[in-house]
Design goal:
It is built from 29 helices and 21 strands. By secondary structure, the protein is α/β, with parallel strands linked by helices. Bound molecules: glutamine and zinc ion. The site of zinc ion has 6 residues, from loops.
Length: 793
């Protein structure tokens, strides 16, 4: 045995977002399934080859997904909601459609071998897309499965739906087939699947009340079948991810680990149990003692656990140490990593494996392709391809320290770390002085909400149930083309400005026609809500190809915060002023808040995140004040990412929320009482942060509620949330045009708990991913719903 390197997952989307483009072309009917499958196959082949060429010993499979890896697993286990399944119409009584899960086709248990030759007909590629996009097999609209953030990342997974008493059967071959496919190409692979406890834990109950924990017994046989099938496909290792081991777990769940992994022991397949995104903490003894062949831990987020874990580790077990950061883009300080790995190796010898901290799903693909980054900044970075190489270099430095290439890489890495530490680009004394001068007054509005809202209402004169939108309107091809032509220098600044102004004018006219009360300019100038602002702030750098999957076909290109942040000039003021000049109705100024600016960027790892957040807050507070001076009476500061920053462990949360709230309040508090501050948050659960959200003291908050049937609103109701609130009345993730009555009902339900005079009417989120026809149709109905409510409540 010699020291082994492996990877936990490679970004599936492709360096040119090939998968995204193919998915979307398929949904538009421009390519057929065979063509789509071909793109997937090509990407997998290229990514496996890249890792093999770098010298990675065990290459992951199962990291590819057509939409989301959790959804793939749901399909694998036959856990597809009845309403999305192919035979939904034929085999399920209509009134039961939404209550039944699992695969009717498999109600008589199939042997694995029989299954292999007769795969489930209820599930195919289109089924996966229907779950994610909210379609019944007939093509009719139905509710999509919920989507929620994957731990504290900006990746979103499809939440598995569970029903009392349901059973599970292997029903979708993808992970197995792709494992066989990689093996056939000559690779030594390690399939990666989410473990049964995390899978259940991360899902939610539907239908009659029950505890999804009780489904474990039904679930494990399907996992056993899957393991057998993976072994038959030729795998000798499987990586089973149980990332919930870094969370505060109820005792019942903690105790379940050992019996579950006893039952998952397989004669031919060795299990590497993977945890990431944090420290095992009180779950460490559980993880250390599981009957598995090896354990992977995140040594970037929690380096301190390495040696403790070694103390607990049985003699025969592998310990995989994730030293290369899968969540950030900074080049590894090889020397530092080497010190840790050497310590570990002295204790456990070649039972040590080296890996990235987590799947590289969360990093962009290849920094070499970047042509526009300043050379020094570029030399501080590593994307997935480079991270894989770092892992292999670390192995070489451990096993063959004389190797000249590895030595050169080590020297390079140390030189880059030194250069970054002393670079003048990073430190700005003015920004640091301003930070020092922050007082409590900077984070406080002049008056309390009750006084402010009265003044605002006197000025704005809005009707009850005022209607508004979240900011963006459809990003048409024409808009994208305008931005890209400007970026490429094909049109000049004057032409660009004229065209964007025209878009703004059209957007304002449409909203006036629809009868919306508080208008927006539509965000036509923005490629992305973070990149747009980052581009105009000092301390931010941008990549050309640094795409990371956010969900499905949606990718983001997070900026890189490398230095102290400041605002050299106003950002949105001229667009906002122009938009307001076109209407007598109030037009909302629209900004991305400091916490979202932080968490949707790759952040500095050389200073606390709090410091960076406050720097951004100061820069944005200047923008807020400038908008007010330009005559903007309503300013929205979007903070969809506030919950994302929430530390995974309870004990760390208060400290985070304190500085996050402070950063928002510093951004918002420079204005007069009369200026109405809105904020917006989406795809969140609010229960655990409701107090902090109230502490933001925004005059109005708009939130996502429609996909959870209004469930998300309960947190606000129970807390007696004191300020105005706009529960999103329809799901913007789907092209379905909502029913008036559904929206009326949602708001009536809300009005039972929240005083009607504090309710707003708005969609769940921005409309940038939608097209105009459905947008206008939906908003017309939304305005109609508001009118009905005004007449009734
Ligand atoms: N103002 C943004 C928009 O409408 C908000 C987007 C978001 O919350 N993610 O697009
Ligand atoms: Zn949103």
């Amino acid at each position: 045995m010699t020291l082994t390197t492996h990877n936990l997952g490679f970004p599936r989307i492709g360096g040119d977002r090939e998968l995204k483009k193919a998915q979307e072309a398929y949904w538009r009917g421009e390519i057929d399934q065979t063509q789509l499958e071909q793109v997937g196959r090509e990407l997998r082949r290229a990514h496996w080859q890249l890792q093999a060429d770098a010298g990675v010993d065990l290459i992951p499979t199962g990291d590819f997904a057509w939409y989301d890896q959790v959804l793939t697993l749901s399909a694998t286990l036959g856990n597809i909601p009845a309403r999305h399944r192919n035979n939904a119409m034929a085999t399920v009584a209509p009134q039961k459609q939404d209550d039944q899960a699992c695969c009717a086709h498999h109600s008589n248990a199939h042997e694995p071998s029989e299954w292999a030759s007769a795969p489930c007909k209820d599930i195919d590629l289109d089924t996966l897309f229907r779950v994610a996009r909210g379609r019944a097999p007939t093509g009719q609209a139905t509710t999509a499965s919920d989507m929620t953030k994957w731990f504290d990342t900006n990746y979103h997974y499809l939440v598995p739906e569970f029903h009392a008493g349901q059973t599970f059967q292997l029903s979708w071959r993808q992970i197995i087939d792709e494992t066989a496919e990689a093996i056939a190409l000559g690779h030594k692979v390690k399939p990666v699947i989410l473990g049964p406890l995390s899978y259940l834990f991360l899902g939610k109950e539907k239908g009659a009340a029950f505890d999804r924990f009780d489904l474990l017994d039904n679930l494990l046989p399907a996992y056993q079948q899957l393991l057998t099938a993976l072994s038959q496909a030729g795998a000798s290792w499987v990586q089973i991810d149980e990332p919930i081991l870094v969370l505060d777990l109820p005792e019942k769940w903690q105790r379940a680990f050992e019996p579950v992994y006893n039952r998952l022991q397989h004669s031919k397949l060795k299990v590497l149990l993977a945890t990431y995104f944090g420290t095992l903490g009180d779950n460490l003894p559980i993880a250390a003692n599981l009957p598995v062949a090896g354990l992977h831990i995140d040594a970037v987020r929690a380096p301190e656990q390495v040696l403790t874990l070694i103390d607990h580790l049985q003699d025969h077990k592998i310990l995989s140490i994730g030293v290369v950061d899968g969540r950030n883009i900074w080049r590894n300080d090889l020397e530092k990593s080497l010190t840790l790995l050497k310590q570990a190796r002295e204790r456990i010898g070649d039972r040590l494996w080296v890996a990235p901290s987590c799947s590289l799903l969360h990093s962009p693909v290849n920094v070499e392709r970047e042509e526009k980054l300043p050379e020094d900044i570029k030399s501080w970075l590593a994307f997935a391809k480079q991270k894989v190489q770092e892992v292999v270099t670390l192995k070489t430095l451990l096993t063959n320290p004389e190797d000249a290439t590895a030595q050169a890489a080590l020297e390079d890495s140390s030189a880059a770390a030194q250069a970054r530490l002393s670079s003048k680009k990073i430190h700005n004394t003015e920004v640091q002085a301003r930070l020092q001068a922050i007082t409590p007054d900077h984070a406080r509005r002049d008056s309390i909400f009750a006084l402010r809202i009265a003044k605002q209402q006197a000025l704005l004169q809005l009707p009850p149930f005022p209607t508004t939108t979240i900011g963006s309107f459809p990003q048409t091809d024409h808009i994208r083309q305008t931005r890209s032509e400007f970026k490429q220098g094909k049109i000049n600044a004057v032409e660009y400005e004229n065209r964007i102004r025209q878009e703004i004018a059209d957007c304002i006219a449409k909203q006036e026609q629809l009868g919306i009360d508080v208008l927006v300019h539509g965000e036509a100038e923005r490629n992305d809500m973070v990149e747009y602002f980052g581009e105009q702030l000092n301390g931010y750098a941008f990549t050309q190809y640094g795409w990371v999957q956010s969900y499905g076909s949606r990718c983001v290109k997070p900026p890189i915060i490398y230095g102290d942040v400041s605002r050299p000039a106003p950002i949105t003021v001229s667009w906002a002023r122009y938009a307001q000049s076109l209407s007598k109705k109030p037009v909302k100024g629209m900004l991305t808040g400091p916490i979202t600016m932080l968490f949707w960027s790759f952040v500095r790892d050389d200073q606390p995140r709090e410091t960076t957040a406050l720097q951004i807050a100061l820069a944005l507070s200047d923008e807020v004040v400038d908008l007010e001076s330009a005559g903007i009476q309503v300013i929205q500061i979007d903070e969809p990412a506030i919950r994302e920053g929430l530390p995974l462990r309870e004990k760390d949360r208060k400290e985070y929320l304190d500085w996050a709230v402070k950063a928002f309040r510093i951004t918002a508090s420079g204005v007069q009482d009369e200026t109405q501050i809105h904020t917006h948050m989406c795809y969140s659960e609010f229960n655990d942060i409701i107090k902090a959200i109230a502490d933001l003291d925004a005059d109005v908050i708009t939130i996502e509620t429609s996909r959870s049937d209004g469930e998300l609103l309960q947190a606000f109701e129970q807390f007696n949330y004191p300020n105005d609130i706009g529960p999103g009345v329809y799901d913007i993730h789907s092209p379905n045009v909502p029913e008036v009555q559904t929206m009326v009902n949602l708001l009536k339900r809300a009005a039972r708990e929240i005083p009607a005079e504090r309710l707003w009417v708005n969609p769940d989120c921005g409309l940038k991913t939608r097209r105009w026809p459905e947008t206008e149709a939906a908003l017309a109905r939304m305005v109609e719903a508001a009118k009905i409510l005004r007449a009734q409540v």
